[in-house]
Amino acid sequence: RANLRLGGLRVLTASGVTSGIDGALYLVGALVSDDCADEVARKMCHQWKKGVVVDGTDV
Question: Is residue 37 a contact partner of residue 48, using CB atoms and an 8 Å limit?
């Protein structure tokens, strides 16, 4: 399932603490579900900025 959602993406990078949290939530969303990632973000009191930029393309 994750392979399909990640579209073959094998490396996930982020710079900085907040974008690292966003990247981790993206991974939770891909491996489990977006609802789970939303719940984790809510419990962390973190406003999740969804969306990933790969080579200048938002996916």
Answer: yes
